[in-house]
């Protein structure tokens, strides 16, 4: 593709320093570089503990890299997540950079439907339309209608994960980070998620994903990226 | 003022207060007149009556009275209550002034909690006795805050009190000491006069002086100043009304006192302004209970 | 499956976060009580629609900081600037007192930890909530009463209790009255000092939900002081961590809580009990 990459990671390094454990340092990766273009789904490969999640969180701004830059194409210009002002990062996350985590951080008393609608409401979509779209997506993910008005706190892991998916795919984020989005889903639901991912890629989204399930990985990956190649010296 | 010729030397200075005190009070009066509704502090003195008995009004009168004045003193509209008589005698003695019950004839009228029915004219001074000069005191105990509110024209709190009244009673229920805006700038307590009297203050040709002896404040409304009683757009200010007329003189437009006549609950309504009532009776007006013994009580006019 | 609909331009609140000038700017703020330090050299900016959390333990200086930036405590040094509607970006302590008081009344809200400090206990709940409207010059009883009823409803209080005095309500309800009182006049910036401290957990949860919704719907900027990390996680977009009067760390909430850099932040986060 000739389009500009939507994510440009350069010279990224991350080392954790635990000050309260006699300043133990945990180096993760060093001099990491990665570019993702529209329509690409780059799957992070490597065994557990190599830093796949850490890389993803560093790109999202959830972790603070020790060094390097993470540039995301936002409103036509590149924003360096590692150096941008907090409100700029929040704006990028709100409109451009979506993140599907393994865990649904549950806010008490907010219903499944509300949770799903929230990203739309935050972006100026009117409530009625947001609700309609949310209901469509929740149906597609085969979440029982009876559960829509309930907060997901008591749902099973698989159901919570599907709420997570709904919340992340309700909008067309140009860039998406997917951390084990199909963990705890059965085969049928995994297939639905694969379809959602493929549709997003067809629309030109750029994705970085971590998938333990090989079927899903094979269905969506355009290429693999080995995080262990950038392992930091201890 | 010096003693008149051929008069025995006074034990007290003219009008009781020494000249320096009068000067201090006059300065406060001038300041108060220059800033209508503003509470000017003054050095309140020990008077022959304790605090709470009209020392503020007495000090104001003492500061401005002269031998050519004609002095009237009323208490809740009546010239003949014990305290009104006392104070009138006091000034007759220490200021050598003529006294009167006739509102039109007086140059200085000192009043506790009423404004005479008879309209005032230019050149007259009405001196009010004030227990609590601060209209917001009941809502805000801190003097530091109320001073700031007046200085910065922050009067929202007064409307909170009116709101509460409407919420509780369905109307603004204050009947006495109803808050007023002076010259659209200062919030003022008109002293505990009935709200019936509030409209009389607006654009009045006379000088209105207010004195609080215990609280040590003087405030004033100069002639022809706007005095507006506070209200809501949808709950406008209303004065009291009676279905009855004055039983003695038949007046339909004066403030009426209710007098209980006997143990069975018989009552009559009489003009609160005793001088106004007797003038009307003298002019031939009669009320439904004209001839009642109340009308013939001898008043020992001093 | 998801139909691609054209998204309208982001709400005013969203757009504002992206492009607006700062609503509040604090520069090198310090406050000493004699030789005892309150807070030292604090600097940050706040934009419309942002929620900033100030966290730290007792004695960290967070209340001092909150009082200084809300115009209630002149600092020893440093500047607090607010984008006032009448004068533009102005040093709040350079304003004369009536102007500053007016700004505090008309453009700000301040929710105290103890509702008794933020309410008039001797007048009705309704009067408390209507007062800011009266301060703004509203003179129509019926209109104000309607607005008050709307707000009581919005904070999920029984509207039939509009004329009850605050002392007849529970602590959580008193706090809701305080919230309504501080939002009815449409402030652009609201300060909150441990607004849920002292409330039962379930009551706290409901109040926080309410606050989150209001922040989102009204595009409010909020500065919230708390020692409760869960409240910070829930409410704040950004955090400032204070210790002994200093700001030891600042950043996006999720970053400070998930990847704390400073030893004290790491200690704070690791001390929070997970249930």
Structure description:
The complex is a heterotrimer of chains A (234), B (302) and C (275). Chain A is α/β, with parallel strands linked by helices. Chain A has 7 helices and 9 strands. In chain A, the strands form 2 sheets. In chain A, strands 6-7-8-3-9 form a 5-stranded parallel beta sheet, sandwiched between helices. Chain A has a 4-stranded antiparallel beta sheet with strand order 2-1-4-5, with helices on one face. In chain A, α3 packs across α4 and α3 runs parallel beside α5. Helices cover 25% and strands 17% of the residues of chain B. In chain B, α1 packs across α2. The longest helix of chain B has 16 residues. The C terminus of chain B is likely disordered. Helices cover 40% and strands 24% of the residues of chain C. In chain C, α5 crosses α6. The relative contact order of chain C is 0.16. Classes of the chains: A alpha/beta (234), B alpha/beta (302), C alpha/beta (275).
Which stretches of chain A are low in confidence, meaning pLDDT under 50 for 5 or more residues running? Answer: none
The assembly state of the depicted protein chains is heterotrimer
Q: What is the helix content of chain C? A: 25-40%
How many separate helices of chain A? Answer: 7
Integer average pLDDT of chain A:
90
How many strand elements of chain C? Answer: 10
Largest sheet of chain C: 6 strands, mixed
Q: Gap between N and C termini of chain C, in Å?
A: 37 Å
Q: Kindly estimate the percentage of residues of chain A that lie in beta strands according to DSSP.
A: 25-35%
Q: Biggest sheet of chain A, open or closed, and with what strands and sense?
A: 5 strands, parallel
Helical run tally of chain C: 11
Radius of gyration of chain A: 18 Å
Nearest-integer average pLDDT of chain C = 89
How much of the sequence lies in strands of chain C comes to 15-25%
List the helices and strands and how they pair.
The complex is a heterotrimer of chains A (234), B (302) and C (275).
Chain A lengths: L6 E12 L5 E13 L4 E5 L6 H9 L6 E8 L2 E4 L5 H10 L1 E4 L11 H10 L5 H14 L16 H13 L5 E5 L7 H16 L3 E5 L3 H7 L2 E4 L8
Parallel strand pairs in A: 3-8, 3-9, 6-7, 7-8
Antiparallel strand pairs in A: 1-2, 1-4, 4-5
Helix pairs in contact in A: 3-4, 3-5
Chain B lengths: L18 H16 L5 E2 L13 H10 L5 E6 L6 H13 L3 E2 L8 E5 L12 E5 L13 H10 L3 H14 L10 E3 L3 E3 L9 H4 L5 E6 L4 E5 L5 E3 L26 E5 L6 E5 L2 H9 L20
Parallel strand pairs in B: 2-3, 2-4, 4-5, 5-8
Antiparallel strand pairs in B: 1-9, 6-7, 6-10, 8-9, 11-12
Chain C lengths: L11 H8 L4 E10 L2 E11 L4 E5 L6 H8 L7 E8 L3 E4 L5 H11 E4 L3 H4 L6 H11 L5 H14 L16 H13 L5 E5 L7 H18 L2 E6 L2 H7 L2 E6 L2 E7 H6 L4 H9 L4
Parallel strand pairs in C: 3-8, 3-9, 6-7, 7-8
Antiparallel strand pairs in C: 1-2, 1-4, 4-5, 9-10
Helix pairs in contact in C: 5-6, 5-7, 7-8
